[in-house]
Protein backbone atom coordinates (compact mmCIF):
# COMPACT_ATOMS: atom_id res chain seq x y z
CA UNK A 1 0.00 0.00 0.00
CA UNK A 2 1.41 3.41 -0.95
CA UNK A 3 1.66 6.25 1.55
CA UNK A 4 1.63 9.99 1.02
CA UNK A 5 5.33 10.26 1.82
CA UNK A 6 6.11 8.01 -1.15
CA UNK A 7 7.08 4.95 0.87
CA UNK A 8 5.33 1.60 0.62
CA UNK A 9 3.79 -0.11 3.63
CA UNK A 10 3.09 -3.83 3.86
CA UNK A 11 -0.46 -4.37 5.12
CA UNK A 12 -0.46 -8.14 4.69
CA UNK A 13 0.55 -11.09 2.56
CA UNK A 14 -0.93 -14.36 1.35
CA UNK A 15 0.13 -17.47 -0.54
CA UNK A 16 -1.09 -20.01 -3.07
CA UNK A 17 0.42 -23.09 -4.70
CA UNK A 18 0.66 -22.43 -8.44
CA UNK A 19 0.50 -26.15 -9.20
CA UNK A 20 -1.92 -28.73 -7.83
CA UNK A 21 0.57 -31.43 -8.81
CA UNK A 22 2.97 -32.13 -11.65
CA UNK A 23 1.40 -31.01 -14.89
CA UNK A 24 -1.70 -29.32 -13.42
CA UNK A 25 -1.64 -25.53 -13.14
CA UNK A 26 -3.84 -24.05 -10.42
CA UNK A 27 -5.92 -21.66 -12.53
CA UNK A 28 -9.10 -19.78 -11.63
CA UNK A 29 -10.22 -17.12 -9.16
CA UNK A 30 -9.16 -17.30 -5.50
CA UNK A 31 -10.28 -15.21 -2.53
CA UNK A 32 -7.28 -15.35 -0.20
CA UNK A 33 -7.21 -14.05 3.36
CA UNK A 34 -4.27 -11.84 4.32
CA UNK A 35 -1.73 -12.65 6.99
CA UNK A 36 -0.44 -9.69 9.02
CA UNK A 37 3.21 -8.67 8.46
CA UNK A 38 4.07 -9.98 11.93
CA UNK A 39 3.54 -13.56 10.70
CA UNK A 40 6.68 -14.79 8.94
CA UNK A 41 6.20 -15.82 5.32
CA UNK A 42 9.54 -17.63 5.02
CA UNK A 43 8.44 -21.10 6.14
CA UNK A 44 5.09 -22.81 6.25
CA UNK A 45 2.31 -23.87 3.87
CA UNK A 46 1.23 -21.42 1.18
CA UNK A 47 -2.31 -20.62 2.26
CA UNK A 48 -4.63 -17.74 3.00
CA UNK A 49 -5.61 -16.63 6.48
CA UNK A 50 -8.86 -18.22 7.64
CA UNK A 51 -9.57 -15.26 9.95
CA UNK A 52 -11.35 -12.28 8.39
CA UNK A 53 -8.65 -9.59 8.63
CA UNK A 54 -8.69 -8.60 4.96
CA UNK A 55 -8.47 -10.49 1.69
CA UNK A 56 -7.44 -10.19 -1.94
CA UNK A 57 -9.03 -11.60 -5.08
CA UNK A 58 -6.47 -13.36 -7.26
CA UNK A 59 -7.25 -14.43 -10.81
CA UNK A 60 -4.96 -16.89 -12.63
CA UNK A 61 -5.38 -18.06 -16.22
CA UNK A 62 -6.47 -21.60 -17.03
CA UNK A 63 -3.52 -23.36 -18.63
CA UNK A 64 -3.80 -26.61 -20.52
CA UNK A 65 -2.04 -29.61 -19.02
CA UNK A 66 1.69 -29.09 -18.87
CA UNK A 67 4.21 -31.73 -19.81
CA UNK A 68 5.53 -33.32 -16.63
CA UNK A 69 9.28 -34.03 -16.44
CA UNK A 70 10.22 -37.56 -17.45
CA UNK A 71 12.09 -39.60 -14.83
CA UNK A 72 13.39 -42.34 -17.15
CA UNK A 73 15.90 -40.40 -19.26
CA UNK A 74 18.90 -42.51 -20.27
CA UNK A 75 21.97 -41.16 -18.48
CA UNK A 76 25.45 -42.62 -18.62
CA UNK A 77 27.04 -43.45 -15.28
CA UNK A 78 30.81 -42.94 -15.16
CA UNK A 79 33.46 -44.26 -12.76
CA UNK A 80 34.72 -41.98 -9.99
CA UNK A 81 38.29 -43.13 -10.66
CA UNK A 82 38.23 -41.48 -14.10
CA UNK A 83 38.61 -38.12 -12.37
CA UNK A 84 42.08 -36.74 -11.67
CA UNK A 85 43.49 -37.19 -8.17
CA UNK A 86 43.07 -33.57 -7.13
CA UNK A 87 39.39 -33.53 -8.11
CA UNK A 88 38.78 -36.86 -6.37
CA UNK A 89 40.31 -35.54 -3.15
CA UNK A 90 38.17 -32.42 -3.36
CA UNK A 91 35.00 -34.50 -3.60
CA UNK A 92 36.17 -36.85 -0.83
CA UNK A 93 36.55 -33.84 1.45
CA UNK A 94 33.08 -32.65 0.42
CA UNK A 95 31.55 -35.95 1.61
CA UNK A 96 32.17 -34.96 5.23
CA UNK A 97 30.78 -31.43 4.86
CA UNK A 98 27.33 -30.37 6.03
CA UNK A 99 25.04 -30.30 2.95
CA UNK A 100 23.07 -27.41 4.44
CA UNK A 101 26.08 -25.11 4.10
CA UNK A 102 26.32 -23.14 0.81
CA UNK A 103 28.97 -24.19 -1.69
CA UNK A 104 31.37 -21.88 -3.47
CA UNK A 105 30.84 -21.12 -7.14
CA UNK A 106 33.89 -23.13 -8.21
CA UNK A 107 32.77 -26.22 -6.30
CA UNK A 108 29.21 -25.92 -7.60
CA UNK A 109 30.54 -25.81 -11.15
CA UNK A 110 32.70 -28.91 -10.61
CA UNK A 111 29.85 -30.76 -8.91
CA UNK A 112 27.59 -30.23 -11.92
CA UNK A 113 30.32 -30.84 -14.49
CA UNK A 114 31.33 -34.21 -12.96
CA UNK A 115 27.86 -35.33 -11.82
CA UNK A 116 28.01 -38.57 -13.84
CA UNK A 117 31.19 -39.64 -11.99
CA UNK A 118 29.75 -39.18 -8.49
CA UNK A 119 26.91 -41.72 -8.39
CA UNK A 120 28.98 -44.25 -6.41
CA UNK A 121 29.14 -41.92 -3.39
CA UNK A 122 25.79 -41.45 -1.65
CA UNK A 123 27.15 -38.70 0.62
CA UNK A 124 27.52 -36.41 -2.41
CA UNK A 125 23.87 -36.71 -3.45
CA UNK A 126 22.50 -34.01 -1.06
CA UNK A 127 25.19 -31.62 -2.31
CA UNK A 128 24.27 -32.33 -5.93
CA UNK A 129 20.55 -31.91 -5.26
CA UNK A 130 21.22 -28.50 -3.68
CA UNK A 131 22.42 -27.09 -7.02
CA UNK A 132 19.93 -24.64 -8.58
CA UNK A 133 21.19 -25.73 -12.02
CA UNK A 134 19.78 -29.21 -11.44
CA UNK A 135 16.19 -27.92 -11.55
CA UNK A 136 16.33 -25.83 -14.71
CA UNK A 137 13.83 -26.95 -17.33
CA UNK A 138 16.64 -28.25 -19.55
CA UNK A 139 18.19 -30.35 -16.75
CA UNK A 140 15.41 -31.54 -14.44
CA UNK A 141 14.79 -34.77 -16.38
CA UNK A 142 18.45 -35.69 -16.06
CA UNK A 143 18.41 -34.81 -12.36
CA UNK A 144 15.53 -37.20 -11.72
CA UNK A 145 17.29 -39.96 -13.68
CA UNK A 146 20.52 -39.48 -11.71
CA UNK A 147 18.50 -39.60 -8.49
CA UNK A 148 17.39 -43.14 -9.38
CA UNK A 149 20.89 -44.21 -10.46
CA UNK A 150 22.78 -42.80 -7.47
CA UNK A 151 23.82 -45.13 -4.66
CA UNK A 152 20.97 -44.93 -2.13
CA UNK A 153 21.22 -42.82 1.00
CA UNK A 154 20.93 -44.34 4.45
CA UNK A 155 17.84 -43.23 6.41
CA UNK A 156 20.02 -40.93 8.52
CA UNK A 157 21.62 -39.35 5.44
CA UNK A 158 18.21 -38.88 3.80
CA UNK A 159 17.06 -36.65 6.68
CA UNK A 160 19.04 -33.80 5.11
CA UNK A 161 16.66 -33.79 2.13
CA UNK A 162 13.74 -32.67 4.32
CA UNK A 163 15.30 -29.23 4.80
CA UNK A 164 13.54 -26.23 3.19
CA UNK A 165 16.40 -25.96 0.69
CA UNK A 166 15.03 -29.10 -1.04
CA UNK A 167 11.48 -28.09 -2.06
CA UNK A 168 11.23 -30.41 -5.08
CA UNK A 169 8.45 -32.97 -4.56
CA UNK A 170 10.29 -35.79 -6.35
CA UNK A 171 13.37 -35.30 -4.17
CA UNK A 172 11.31 -35.30 -0.98
CA UNK A 173 9.46 -38.42 -2.14
CA UNK A 174 12.85 -40.11 -2.62
CA UNK A 175 13.83 -39.10 0.92
CA UNK A 176 10.66 -40.70 2.30
CA UNK A 177 11.43 -43.91 0.41
CA UNK A 178 14.84 -43.99 2.10
CA UNK A 179 13.11 -43.92 5.51
CA UNK A 180 11.05 -47.06 4.86
CA UNK A 181 13.74 -49.34 6.33
CA UNK A 182 14.06 -47.34 9.56
CA UNK A 183 12.85 -49.15 12.69
CA UNK A 184 10.36 -47.67 15.14
CA UNK A 185 13.00 -46.95 17.81
CA UNK A 186 15.16 -44.96 15.40
CA UNK A 187 12.15 -43.24 13.87
CA UNK A 188 11.09 -42.15 17.35
CA UNK A 189 14.44 -40.36 17.74
CA UNK A 190 14.03 -38.44 14.48
CA UNK A 191 10.27 -37.86 14.73
CA UNK A 192 10.56 -34.27 16.07
CA UNK A 193 12.73 -33.37 13.06
CA UNK A 194 10.29 -34.99 10.63
CA UNK A 195 7.24 -33.31 12.16
CA UNK A 196 9.01 -29.96 11.92
CA UNK A 197 9.72 -30.75 8.25
CA UNK A 198 5.98 -30.84 7.55
CA UNK A 199 6.23 -27.04 7.40
CA UNK A 200 8.22 -27.27 4.20
CA UNK A 201 5.87 -29.59 2.29
CA UNK A 202 3.88 -28.09 -0.58
CA UNK A 203 0.69 -30.05 0.08
CA UNK A 204 -1.14 -31.33 3.13
CA UNK A 205 -1.21 -34.90 1.75
CA UNK A 206 2.54 -34.99 1.14
CA UNK A 207 4.53 -38.22 0.99
CA UNK A 208 6.06 -37.37 4.37
CA UNK A 209 2.66 -36.83 6.02
CA UNK A 210 1.34 -40.13 4.66
CA UNK A 211 4.50 -41.95 5.77
CA UNK A 212 4.19 -40.65 9.34
CA UNK A 213 0.52 -41.63 9.52
CA UNK A 214 1.20 -45.11 8.16
CA UNK A 215 4.00 -45.74 10.65
CA UNK A 216 1.90 -44.38 13.53
CA UNK A 217 -0.80 -46.90 12.61
CA UNK A 218 1.65 -49.77 13.20
CA UNK A 219 3.13 -48.54 16.51
CA UNK A 220 1.11 -47.19 19.44
CA UNK A 221 4.13 -45.41 20.91
CA UNK A 222 4.77 -43.56 17.64
CA UNK A 223 1.08 -42.65 17.42
CA UNK A 224 1.15 -41.01 20.86
CA UNK A 225 4.44 -39.23 20.18
CA UNK A 226 3.24 -37.95 16.81
CA UNK A 227 -0.03 -36.73 18.32
CA UNK A 228 1.62 -34.60 21.00
CA UNK A 229 4.24 -33.24 18.60
CA UNK A 230 1.42 -32.13 16.31
CA UNK A 231 -0.49 -30.61 19.24
CA UNK A 232 2.58 -28.53 20.00
CA UNK A 233 2.29 -26.92 16.55
CA UNK A 234 -1.43 -26.11 16.63
CA UNK A 235 -0.74 -22.58 17.89
CA UNK A 236 1.48 -21.75 14.89
CA UNK A 237 -0.73 -19.69 12.54
CA UNK A 238 0.51 -21.10 9.22
CA UNK A 239 0.42 -24.70 10.41
CA UNK A 240 -2.96 -24.65 12.17
CA UNK A 241 -5.07 -26.09 9.33
CA UNK A 242 -2.48 -28.66 8.28
CA UNK A 243 -1.95 -29.88 11.84
CA UNK A 244 -5.68 -30.22 12.47
CA UNK A 245 -6.02 -32.36 9.35
CA UNK A 246 -3.10 -34.52 10.47
CA UNK A 247 -4.58 -34.99 13.95
CA UNK A 248 -7.97 -36.01 12.54
CA UNK A 249 -6.31 -38.45 10.14
CA UNK A 250 -4.16 -39.86 12.95
CA UNK A 251 -7.17 -40.43 15.22
CA UNK A 252 -8.95 -42.25 12.39
CA UNK A 253 -6.02 -44.39 11.24
CA UNK A 254 -4.70 -45.32 14.70
CA UNK A 255 -7.96 -46.98 15.72
CA UNK A 256 -10.65 -46.31 18.32
CA UNK A 257 -8.62 -47.61 21.28
CA UNK A 258 -5.70 -45.24 20.61
CA UNK A 259 -8.07 -42.37 19.81
CA UNK A 260 -9.91 -42.94 23.11
CA UNK A 261 -6.61 -42.98 25.00
CA UNK A 262 -5.58 -39.68 23.41
CA UNK A 263 -8.94 -38.09 24.24
CA UNK A 264 -8.55 -39.11 27.88
CA UNK A 265 -5.05 -37.64 27.96
CA UNK A 266 -6.36 -34.40 26.48
CA UNK A 267 -9.07 -34.26 29.14
CA UNK A 268 -6.48 -34.85 31.87
CA UNK A 269 -4.25 -32.13 30.44
CA UNK A 270 -7.12 -29.62 30.31
CA UNK A 271 -8.00 -30.33 33.93
CA UNK A 272 -4.39 -30.00 35.09
CA UNK A 273 -4.06 -26.69 33.22
CA UNK A 274 -7.08 -25.31 35.08
CA UNK A 275 -5.65 -26.44 38.42
CA UNK A 276 -2.20 -24.99 37.63
CA UNK A 277 -3.67 -21.61 36.65
CA UNK A 278 -5.73 -21.46 39.85
CA UNK A 279 -2.58 -22.25 41.83
CA UNK A 280 -0.62 -19.53 40.02
CA UNK A 281 -3.38 -16.94 40.46
CA UNK A 282 -3.93 -17.69 44.14
CA UNK A 283 -1.86 -15.66 46.58
CA UNK A 284 -2.34 -18.05 49.49
CA UNK A 285 -3.33 -21.64 50.24
CA UNK A 286 -1.84 -22.85 46.96
CA UNK A 287 -1.30 -26.34 48.32
CA UNK A 288 -4.94 -26.59 49.34
CA UNK A 289 -6.16 -25.35 45.95
CA UNK A 290 -3.98 -27.95 44.24
CA UNK A 291 -5.12 -30.80 46.49
CA UNK A 292 -8.80 -30.01 46.00
CA UNK A 293 -8.34 -30.07 42.24
CA UNK A 294 -6.27 -33.26 42.27
CA UNK A 295 -8.83 -35.03 44.46
CA UNK A 296 -11.37 -34.58 41.66
CA UNK A 297 -8.85 -35.93 39.14
CA UNK A 298 -8.13 -38.86 41.46
CA UNK A 299 -11.82 -39.74 41.60
CA UNK A 300 -12.12 -39.71 37.80
CA UNK A 301 -9.03 -41.95 37.53
CA UNK A 302 -10.55 -44.44 39.96
CA UNK A 303 -13.59 -44.61 37.70
CA UNK A 304 -11.53 -44.99 34.52
CA UNK A 305 -7.77 -45.58 34.34
CA UNK A 306 -5.70 -43.92 31.61
CA UNK A 307 -2.20 -43.68 30.19
CA UNK A 308 0.06 -40.65 30.56
CA UNK A 309 1.07 -38.53 27.54
CA UNK A 310 4.74 -39.53 27.48
CA UNK A 311 4.28 -43.28 27.99
CA UNK A 312 1.34 -45.21 26.50
CA UNK A 313 2.56 -48.33 28.32
CA UNK A 314 2.09 -46.76 31.76
CA UNK A 315 -1.52 -46.97 32.92
CA UNK A 316 -2.50 -45.12 36.11
CA UNK A 317 -5.70 -45.23 38.15
CA UNK A 318 -5.00 -43.10 41.25
CA UNK A 319 -3.21 -40.00 42.48
CA UNK A 320 -1.41 -39.98 45.82
CA UNK A 321 -2.74 -36.52 46.69
CA UNK A 322 -0.92 -36.29 50.03
CA UNK A 323 2.45 -36.73 48.29
CA UNK A 324 1.76 -33.94 45.79
CA UNK A 325 3.06 -30.42 46.30
CA UNK A 326 3.73 -27.06 44.64
CA UNK A 327 7.37 -26.16 44.03
CA UNK A 328 8.24 -22.59 45.13
CA UNK A 329 9.88 -21.62 41.82
CA UNK A 330 8.83 -18.86 39.43
CA UNK A 331 6.35 -20.91 37.37
CA UNK A 332 5.01 -22.80 40.44
CA UNK A 333 5.15 -26.29 38.90
CA UNK A 334 3.12 -29.03 40.58
CA UNK A 335 4.53 -32.37 41.65
CA UNK A 336 1.86 -35.00 40.91
CA UNK A 337 2.34 -38.58 42.10
CA UNK A 338 0.40 -41.24 40.17
CA UNK A 339 -0.27 -44.81 41.25
CA UNK A 340 0.02 -47.34 38.40
CA UNK A 341 -2.66 -49.94 37.72
CA UNK A 342 0.01 -52.56 38.40
CA UNK A 343 -0.02 -52.69 42.20
CA UNK A 344 3.51 -54.13 42.27
CA UNK A 345 4.92 -51.11 40.43
CA UNK A 346 6.30 -48.08 42.24
CA UNK A 347 4.53 -44.75 42.32
CA UNK A 348 5.25 -42.57 39.31
CA UNK A 349 6.25 -39.00 40.13
CA UNK A 350 5.66 -36.27 37.56
CA UNK A 351 5.96 -32.49 37.32
CA UNK A 352 3.28 -30.46 35.57
CA UNK A 353 4.38 -27.00 34.43
CA UNK A 354 2.55 -24.02 32.97
CA UNK A 355 4.60 -21.05 31.81
CA UNK A 356 7.63 -22.76 30.23
CA UNK A 357 8.09 -23.86 26.62
CA UNK A 358 8.79 -27.54 27.19
CA UNK A 359 9.41 -28.09 23.49
CA UNK A 360 12.93 -26.83 24.16
CA UNK A 361 13.36 -29.46 26.88
CA UNK A 362 12.04 -32.14 24.51
CA UNK A 363 14.54 -31.07 21.85
CA UNK A 364 17.53 -31.18 24.22
CA UNK A 365 16.52 -34.56 25.67
CA UNK A 366 16.03 -35.96 22.19
CA UNK A 367 19.44 -34.63 21.18
CA UNK A 368 21.05 -36.36 24.17
CA UNK A 369 19.35 -39.65 23.23
CA UNK A 370 20.64 -39.30 19.68
CA UNK A 371 24.17 -38.54 20.87
CA UNK A 372 24.03 -41.57 23.16
CA UNK A 373 22.94 -43.75 20.22
CA UNK A 374 25.91 -42.56 18.16
CA UNK A 375 28.31 -43.10 21.07
CA UNK A 376 27.02 -46.63 21.68
CA UNK A 377 27.40 -47.46 17.99
CA UNK A 378 31.02 -46.33 18.31
CA UNK A 379 31.57 -48.57 21.34
CA UNK A 380 31.45 -45.75 23.90
CA UNK A 381 28.98 -46.30 26.76
CA UNK A 382 28.58 -43.14 28.86
CA UNK A 383 25.58 -44.69 30.68
CA UNK A 384 23.30 -41.84 29.70
CA UNK A 385 19.88 -41.71 31.34
CA UNK A 386 17.19 -39.20 30.42
CA UNK A 387 13.81 -38.35 31.87
CA UNK A 388 10.56 -38.26 29.93
CA UNK A 389 9.05 -34.97 28.84
CA UNK A 390 6.02 -34.07 26.72
CA UNK A 391 4.82 -30.60 25.77
CA UNK A 392 1.02 -30.78 25.77
CA UNK A 393 0.43 -27.28 24.43
CA UNK A 394 1.85 -23.79 24.25
CA UNK A 395 4.01 -23.19 27.34
CA UNK A 396 2.77 -26.22 29.24
CA UNK A 397 3.53 -29.90 29.63
CA UNK A 398 4.38 -32.82 31.89
CA UNK A 399 7.78 -34.22 32.88
CA UNK A 400 9.00 -37.29 34.69
CA UNK A 401 10.30 -36.34 38.14
CA UNK A 402 13.74 -37.72 38.96
CA UNK A 403 14.55 -38.40 42.61
CA UNK A 404 17.74 -39.30 44.50
CA UNK A 405 19.99 -37.31 42.18
CA UNK A 406 22.37 -34.38 42.56
CA UNK A 407 22.99 -31.58 40.11
CA UNK A 408 26.46 -31.05 38.70
CA UNK A 409 26.61 -27.64 40.38
CA UNK A 410 25.77 -29.16 43.76
CA UNK A 411 28.47 -31.82 43.37
CA UNK A 412 31.10 -29.31 42.31
CA UNK A 413 30.19 -26.95 45.14
CA UNK A 414 30.21 -29.74 47.72
CA UNK A 415 33.57 -31.11 46.65
CA UNK A 416 35.08 -27.74 45.71
CA UNK A 417 36.06 -29.50 42.48
CA UNK A 418 36.59 -26.34 40.48
CA UNK A 419 38.34 -24.21 43.05
CA UNK A 420 40.72 -26.25 45.19
CA UNK A 421 40.57 -29.99 44.58
CA UNK A 422 40.56 -32.46 41.73
CA UNK A 423 37.38 -33.17 39.81
CA UNK A 424 37.23 -36.74 41.06
CA UNK A 425 37.01 -35.88 44.77
CA UNK A 426 33.29 -36.62 44.83
CA UNK A 427 31.61 -38.38 46.59
CA UNK A 428 33.19 -37.90 50.05
CA UNK A 429 35.25 -40.97 50.96
CA UNK A 430 33.71 -41.36 54.40
CA UNK A 431 30.11 -41.59 53.20
CA UNK A 432 30.13 -44.88 51.27
CA UNK A 433 31.82 -48.26 51.06
CA UNK A 434 34.67 -49.05 48.68
CA UNK A 435 32.55 -50.78 46.02
CA UNK A 436 29.93 -48.02 46.01
CA UNK A 437 32.66 -45.39 45.88
CA UNK A 438 34.25 -47.04 42.84
CA UNK A 439 30.91 -47.14 40.98
CA UNK A 440 30.16 -43.53 41.89
CA UNK A 441 33.57 -42.36 40.70
CA UNK A 442 33.13 -44.24 37.43
CA UNK A 443 29.73 -42.60 36.82
CA UNK A 444 31.22 -39.23 37.76
CA UNK A 445 34.03 -39.60 35.22
CA UNK A 446 31.52 -40.50 32.50
CA UNK A 447 29.41 -37.46 33.42
CA UNK A 448 32.44 -35.19 33.16
CA UNK A 449 33.28 -36.78 29.80
CA UNK A 450 29.76 -36.00 28.57
CA UNK A 451 29.97 -32.41 29.82
CA UNK A 452 33.28 -31.93 28.01
CA UNK A 453 31.76 -33.38 24.82
CA UNK A 454 28.59 -31.29 25.00
CA UNK A 455 30.44 -28.08 25.97
CA UNK A 456 33.92 -28.25 24.37
Describe the overall structure.
This protein has helices spanning 85-94, 105-113, 125-129, 140-149, 155-158, 169-178, 184-197, 207-218, 220-231, 240-254, 256-281, 286-303, 358-377, 408-415, 434-454; strands at 19-21, 24-25, 28-33, 55-60, 306-308, 311-319, 325-326, 334-340, 348-354, 389-393, 396-400. By secondary structure, it is of the alpha+beta class. The chain folds into three domains: 100-258, Serine Threonine Protein Phosphatase 5, Tetratricopeptide repeat, CATH 1.25.40.70; 265-400, Phosphatidylinositol 3-kinase Catalytic Subunit, Chain A, domain 4 (2-Layer Sandwich); 408-448, no CATH class.
Amino acid sequence: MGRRDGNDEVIGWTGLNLFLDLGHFNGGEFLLGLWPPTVSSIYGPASGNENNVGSVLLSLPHVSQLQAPCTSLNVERRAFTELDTETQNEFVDLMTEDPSQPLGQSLRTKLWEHRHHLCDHAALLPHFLSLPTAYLAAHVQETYSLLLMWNPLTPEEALALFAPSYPDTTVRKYAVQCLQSMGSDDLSLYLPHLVESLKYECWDDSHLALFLLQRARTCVRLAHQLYWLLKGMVEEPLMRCRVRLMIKALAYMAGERVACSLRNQMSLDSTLVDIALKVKNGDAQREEVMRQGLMRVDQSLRDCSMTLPFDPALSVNEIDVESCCVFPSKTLPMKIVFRPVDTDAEKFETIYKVGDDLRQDMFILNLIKLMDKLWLESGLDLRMLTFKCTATGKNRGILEAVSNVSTLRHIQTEALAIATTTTFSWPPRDTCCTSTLAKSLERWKLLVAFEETAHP
